[in-house]
């Protein structure tokens, strides 16, 4: 419409019973531009850290396949995206000056005509969330690496994933994905990320522990070079190095030689998994005996090495132990608890902790999770937790 004059503005103020003295002298007259429509623009609410990322020229990425809830990722963090509706309409006005800016600029003309470029009744709200990493292991487990002689790998039909592929498929930031690849001991073979098939991994580990034994090396000083020389004829050298990296800490001594300090707990845990994989349940005391005999000389097998891998049933006579891997359980909080309560009706906090620890957000404790998803009671003087809802 026609541009307003100062007289019209003053008349409007009078009708609205507003005292011009209490207002800034500059007046914004808004008109809608020809293409201003709803839904042309999306508003995103950013915390200061993310704002700084964008201002520094880094990008934020929205990830998720068609059937997944979208997440937004920076280089190292993941955020859930939720639409927040507002009761006030939000207007986009290019070059709009705030009251502070107008106050500073006393010379500004007293009627400013601004065109609204677009409007919105909602905005995207970001909430920091746990990266959704379960799928990463699932994708790589489609075709675990069985070694250089594997027929499957020569047929060229296996699922192949590069870092780029994983970035487009996994709802997590790049740093979170690369960190998780390290945690699950993935390795790059010919440019593709792979996890080792468990039996092949055990075969490699066995070669290394037997060599350590026959050479009488200290477990804290295993020389890379000799391992590669001795075992290189049995398996690819990069696989020998990968297994040392998976089950040891790499360091360089004063002479520049590369050594590994072997992780006792991780080796004992893997051997326990190998023993437990072939039985539904195992008599606990028999298992402990066989397990201790199976671990390398000089290592001590202890039940606390099996957190999140195996569960002891103290109620059965004799006591038993069985495989229960935290990575096989659902990723969502409620689904995780449903699944745990269908395995066992009542849990002590000590038993359930390894199976819910990974669900804790930054500041959340296991106790807070239990309060929300379980109810507690006393059983023979011990606090136990069971489901808040009936388990079908």
TrEMBL record:
<protein>
    <recommendedName>
        <fullName>Sister chromatid cohesion protein DCC1</fullName>
    </recommendedName>
</protein>
<dbReference type="GO" id="GO:0031390">
    <property type="term" value="C:Ctf18 RFC-like complex"/>
</dbReference>
<dbReference type="Pfam" id="PF09724">
    <property type="entry name" value="Dcc1"/>
</dbReference>
<dbReference type="GO" id="GO:0000785">
    <property type="term" value="C:chromatin"/>
</dbReference>
<dbReference type="InterPro" id="IPR019128">
    <property type="entry name" value="Dcc1"/>
</dbReference>
<dbReference type="GO" id="GO:0000775">
    <property type="term" value="C:chromosome, centromeric region"/>
</dbReference>
<keyword id="KW-0235">DNA replication</keyword>
<dbReference type="GO" id="GO:0006260">
    <property type="term" value="P:DNA replication"/>
</dbReference>
<dbReference type="GO" id="GO:0034088">
    <property type="term" value="P:maintenance of mitotic sister chromatid cohesion"/>
</dbReference>
<comment type="similarity">
    <text>Belongs to the DCC1 family.</text>
</comment>
